[in-house]
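Student: Please help interpret what follows.
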Amino acid sequence: MVLRSIAGSRRFGRRAAALALTTALAAALPGPVSSAADAATAAAPARPTAYVDPLIGTANGGNTYPGANLPYGMIGWSPTSTRGDQTSTGAANGYEYGATRLRGLSLTHVNGAGCNPGAAGDVPIMPFVGDVTSSPSADTTDAVYAANFSHADERAVPGRYSVGLDSGARADLAVSQRAGVADFTFPADKPANLLFRVSNSLNGSEDAEVRIDQARRKVTGSVLTGAFCGRRANGGVNNRKSYYRLYFSASFDRAFSSTGTWKDGTLSPGSTTGGGGEGYATGADRAGRGSGGYVGFDTGSDNDVHMRLGISYVSLAGAEENLREEIAPRASVEKVAEAGSRAWDRELRSVRVGGGSDAQRTAFYTALYHSLQQPNLVSDRDGRYPGMDGKAHRIERGQGAQYSNFSGWDQYRAQIQLLALLKPRVAGDFAQSLYNFAEQNGGVWDRWVHINGPTHVMTGDPTAATLATFYAMGVRNFDYRGAFDSLAKQATVPHPDGLSDAGCPGQCTGQRPNLAQYMTSGYAAQDVCHCWGGAAETLEDSVADDALGRWAKLLGRDEQAAHFADRGGWWRNVYNPAATDGAGTDGYIQARNLDGSWVTPFSPGSDRGFAQGTSATYTWMVPQDVQGLAEAMGGREVAAHRLDGFFHKADGSWSVKGGDALRYDPTNEPGIHAPWLYNALGQPWKTQATVRQIVDTVYGTGPTGLPGNDDLGTMSAWYVFSVLGIYPQTPGSADLLLGAPLFPHAVIDRPGRTDIVIDAPAADATHAYVGGVRLNGRTHDRSWTDGGLLRTGGTLKVTLATEPNTTWATAPAGLPR
């Protein structure tokens, strides 16, 4: 057993080390392949996982995690780090590259969420070298029952994670969708224990339990938790509540030499049952609380421990069935990892790119990897899942699985479009999942759903925009008529929660806050809106309503289509043509009061009336009516000149890395579509230049390779679209804006449909501009395509140039809306 396990770890270590070396060398490469001709014929990688680096985004606030997961998987087995406070973590979502001390390997994670500590991080399992002589919960500074590690001893590839600790212990993990296996290796002839810190989820817990079955060599238990964003100052107290219970069942290939449990400060050696929660506070209010159990092993003749584990959000029996069905009884880490790698390769082959440098492929396939980590399974193998009403439910007839983790405000701008494009079946199941949750929640569609919890985080009505986009992009495997009716009702019938300030500003309970006032005034009044910010709420609802109008039109519901299309133009009610920056630029989005007055004082760099952004950013957040916005500003030329100032400093130099309240911020969602607005303003070459500047300077390889919170794949999806040279025009539409591809060749796989092929033979570091486009062999003089490309597939042939073509796609009649 020892030799087999160590050999497997060494093979994994050699492959991962080779990947790390390749990535490091690729980062130093000056550019793509030697010539355009070579690039055009370069084959797509047979194993795209070879170009994935899960450590990208683990620094610079990307909030990704490097642990083992599968596409849309339930389990995400990854470290929970510490900086010396057991009631917090070293970073959001449990991992940050600069925090090299960990207190366990937790079973669940969320990719890139912005709240710190984030969500989940359930049941950290810690390989501990030494005798357990005190309660780990009493180790409030993580001085004893945690361990340092070096990144030189850490390896991460899709589906597998390994780390060696300074204590001498090592963990090697691999997963299926709902289960996993691990080899824990300990120093010979030293005390060896595994700690199950059942109460120590990232946000704390209400309750937890652990049971140790010595005869069957099993450890089982659960944790009752939730509280996503519950520690935020702007309304987080509203979320200090439980909404899900995670169950786990772990079995071992060898007997335990010792057992024990703990609760709070009391250690109970020899005990086999225990429990108790920590609460959702932090610091001194939670320090020293919690429970768990441990099992010890004799390392005198065998220093390797093999563990198999399953999880479920429904029951312990569900966890055990998930394990039994997904991982064979004697499966090694190596075998499970190989299956996981194949699963990721299948998923990543959804887009096959040819040419480019190794660094560009690494950035691309890692972005695709991050984009396709969610939504996440919450249903068991038997189809049961936890409902939003707290009861167990079974998936609907025809539904493949129940999914969750919907970061709506973030995802509706890019990630859900990529999901619909590449994985329409998953998108449909996700849409049905959200509808199921809404039906269990009294007809209320929550804007940020974690597992089965309505967390209310952020603002607007992103589910309307999301499902309308799914339908427009051809997704049909959900009850789209029932879902539309339900979302239309939420948008037109006031709900009592809309008058509550609970959770405000960041987690307001009302999903369409003060809807009666909104429908009467045509805007969300800052002084009575019960929302994060009246101006932001108006813009978000305008986008959502426009999307509902487009959906209604596709459904043949003309009266509703006209109603919602009209409401999609209510952004005009918060556009103040007299608002000024004091330096000659007039016309900005500005919050208003109920009496119609503008909220003052006004500054375009202020966030008053907005959510995680300023007026300077939100003024551009009208993707559904760019021509109308340009007209309000004084015409397309004026709007384009203003947009120039959004991406450049006064001296003409670029300003696209964030940190300036008056300019583009690539780290957050309200403005990420802005580089593509030039297409509608008749100056598409500026979109090409701006997107390439962001791609080249803001994204990259290594831990800092993302600009900020990945937000459940959103920032990664922006990158995937942008380097392919296409981008979704607006929610509720299948239209795509066109730009300059980074790769000479790309194929978007469309199961059951004709593929979309994007050929740009001259693509390289110097050819950043579109010289011309042919669509299915015909000259295409527009900087966008309608939904026909998605419906029928086809080929885009893009001629690239080193200088801007200021005549292509500029005719006013052919501009995007």
